[in-house]
Amino acid sequence: QVQLVESGGGLVQPGGSLRLSCAASGSIFSIHAMGWYRQAPGKQRELVARITSGGSTNFADSVKGRFTISRDNAKNTVYLQMNSLKPEDTAKYYCNAYIATMIQGDMNYWGKGTLVTVSS
What we know:
Layout: E1 2-7, E2 10-12, E3 18-26, E4 28-39, E5 46-52, E6 57-59, E7 67-72, E8 77-82, E9 91-101, E10 105-110, E11 114-118
Parallel strand pairs: 2-11
Antiparallel strand pairs: 1-3, 3-8, 4-5, 4-9, 5-6, 7-8, 9-10, 9-11
């Protein structure tokens, strides 16, 4: 059993910053990749940023230059630093991890999500 727990969401004014965290715990052998997706009301879930075990990253075009992603492998934690936030960044942000588990092999996991609201 693996759990992903997100934190760091909230209300922020346009131009502000937030840092999201996601910690993975449970029967983890190793983590292949971790990332963040978001879903705004009435829209499909979309990739925001992703980082592999080797540190390779990719970002949605809409967040390039404003968001950075990093991970602490020792803590099984991924971070999303969001700067210059815009109202269109308002969404529920979900942590995702592709994990090699000790019992079930490679599995894909989702967190429950954390709400980010950008508004004045």
